[in-house]
Amino acid sequence: MVGDVTEHAPDDLVLPPGGGKRVWLQGLGVRFLVRGEQTGGRFALVEHPMQPKALGAPLHTHEQEDEISYVVEGQVGVQIGEQVFVAEAGSLVRKPRCVPHALWNAGDGPARVLEIISPGGFERYFEEVATLFVAEGPPDPERVARLWQQYHIDMDLNSIPRLIEAHGLAGLPTDPSEGPGR
Asked: For the chain, where are the alpha helices, taking DSSP H only?
């Protein structure tokens, strides 16, 4: 049948609804839609479902990647440099490399963001850091620090309490299994 992509398309050209590997980093989910390996390293595309009032990421700075986030559902708070915004569904947020930024669900319902990462490759960070949260207890700080170094990311963990308080966030679950889909 002409146009029947399910019969003729290679696996990496069409991702069916609900397809793609998923991991959870506490209140932030990651669904891998397009990996850097599929684009010659030019970009990657991930989906971030977020629990209500969850901190998705504390202030952090990428040395090598730009991120562009499209809010599909809910209200997403972002801090980019010193500026703070609440982006509604349909909004586009640009987070340039070398500029500190943070991300959280500003609403009482779920939020969902499509995120382009350019160049691709950083999406692997999410998989690697997720493995550190599956064990009992907190992740090994040395392993986490090595990942940050490997992916050229500067993470400001001291921003977490301030972001939680300033934006009325729920805080971080102590049990990573509290993430949706677990």
From this structure: 5-8, 123-132, 141-150, 159-167
